[in-house]
Amino acid sequence: MLKIIIYTSLLMSIVSCFESKDTVCYSFDEKQCLFDPWTAADSDNTKEDDIQNYLSTEGIEVEDISIDRAFHEVVCLACEVCPSGPRIYVEIEEKSEAQLTRLPLLSLAKTDCSNIP
User: Fold this and answer.
1) Burial code of 19-47, b = ≥16 C-beta within 10 A, e = fewer?
2) Distance separating alpha carbons of residues 109 and 59, to the nearest angstrom
3) 22: which residues sit within 8 A by CB, 6+ positions away?
4) For a tag on the chain, would you pick the N or C end, based on fewer CB atoms within 10 A?
């Protein structure tokens, strides 16, 4: 009987270590005229890191991130209101959703997490 109690306790503690986080996914566009804090990045990896760092400074932990560089084939040329081309997809913890929606991100929209490869 004691072995059953010990094994059950051990199993429950192991299972609790693998709790999944509740996450949500959002997409947003990079703005024309370098109006986003991360637009000075030279490559996808640097840009992803820069976006992740920016969101982190805003209290948002990014679980996953992806950039579709060819999302917008045709764009307008107005600063701050027109996309520059890429669409950014982020998966964040559900508890950070309110902070994300308060940021001045262009075309911010909740999206399906399958958009993040």
Assistant:
1) eeeebbbbbbbbbbeeebebbebeeeeeb
2) 19
3) 93, 94, 95
4) N
Q: Are strands 106-111 and 83-93 parallel, antiparallel or unpaired?
A: unpaired
pTM, two decimal places: 0.77
Q: Nearest to residue 97, comparing CAs of 50, 63, 66?
A: 63
pLDDT tens sequence across 53-70: 899 999 999 999 999 988
Question: Domains of the chain (ranges plus CATH)?
Answer: 21-115 (3.30.70)
Whether the CA torsion 59, 64, 69, 74 is positive or negative: it is: negative
CA dist 80 and 82 (Å) reads 6
Average pLDDT over residues 60-86: 90
Query: Which residues neighbour 32 within 8 Å (Cβ) at sequence distance 6 or greater?
Result: 75, 76, 77, 78, 79, 80, 81, 82, 83, 84
